[in-house]
Write a structure and sequence with these properties.
Bound molecules: zinc ion
Structural class: alpha/beta
Number of strands: 14
Largest sheet: 7 strands, mixed
Number of helices: 9
């Protein structure tokens, strides 16, 4: 039972950047904790997802990006641009890995014609200063909330992070994209909610068999940089979290792999509350 007003909404739950008929959207989350509105990751669909939660784009207090795979930040620029046209006129801090500032500058350049036009023709405020990008560190004081980070295991990317938010009334841990790491149990210790990425090995084989424009490197990449659903159950149990949610499903949208398969894998080790992430699902903390 939710014990606070704090919530985490899973806006997008698919692992990987491709979408197809029947699939969910890539990863983004909306954390509402201690009166703050925090967006974590900006995969495709994040802007629509925030609005569908009844939250105005102008109300975002902070954005955090876990790593620079496109399924986690492809829509960061479009989110800002859309918020700008929806009335945003103050700076939103963005915390992310090294290199994110280059994306932000290049996004502005790519939209320069439209941005300059709207400033001149519609009297819009300056756009470039709406985001204040800073590099992710070990701990961040967010004013009433402490964000702790842990470098996870997501080769070949090294700047990839798990996040933990501790507020006055609740705590949540997000695994980010990672291979199985037993240390995640310590990092998530006692959290009200652990959101962990998950993969089904048989589903990865099926997914790779269907690929028409890649080779065996995709299979190798997926298997060495993500976590079996069974191990996710193990981590939740060892961490003693109150609730567990799965996101970043690999595969996602494959009718051969249903809720039953995911649950069977996780339930080998975890018998507590379990949410299989669906786009728009809101979980009480
Ligand atoms: Zn990803
Ligand atoms: Zn990734």
């Amino acid at each position: 039972m939710p014990q606070t007003n704090d919530t985490l909404a899973l806006l997008g739950n698919k692992g990987g950047p491709a979408i197809r008929p029947g699939s969910q959207m890539p990863v983004s989350m909306l954390l509402r904790m201690a009166g703050k509105t925090i967006v974590i990751d900006c995969g495709l669909g994040v802007t629509r997802g925030i609005c569908d939660q009844g939250v105005a784009l102008t109300k975002i207090d902070l954005i955090v990006i876990t790593h620079l795979h496109s399924d986690h930040y492809l829509e960061l620029g479009p989110l800002f641009h859309t918020a700008w046209t929806a009335g945003l006129n103050r700076t939103i801090p963005v915390i992310g890995p090294r290199g994110l500032d280059a994306y932000w500058r290049a996004f502005q350049d790519s939209m320069r014609f439209d941005i300059d036009l709207r400033i001149r023709d519609e009297g819009r405020c300056d756009f470039d200063s709406l985001a204040a990008i800073s590099e992710i560190g070990e701990t961040h004081d967010l004013g009433g909330i402490t964000m702790t980070t842990m470098r996870n295991v997501h080769p070949p990317i090294t700047d990839s992070f798990a996040l933990r938010f501790d507020g006055p009334d609740s705590s949540v841990t997000l695994s980010g994209d990672t291979a199985y790491m037993p240390e995640m149990a310590d990092f998530a210790r006692g959290a009200d909610l652990l959101v962990h990425e998950a993969m089904l090995r048989d589903g990865v084989e099926a997914l790779c068999a269907r690929m028409t424009n890649g080779d065996d490197r995709l299979r190798t990449h997926i298997l060495r940089s993500h976590t079996d659903a069974e191990d996710v159950g193990r981590i939740a149990r060892d961490a003693g979290v109150r609730q567990l949610a799965l996101n970043h499903f690999v595969p996602d949208g494959d009718p051969d792999f249903t809720d039953r398969h995911w649950e069977a894998a996780v339930r080998k080790h975890w018998d507590g509350p379990l949410f299989l992430g669906r786009d728009g699902m809101k979980i009480g903390l």
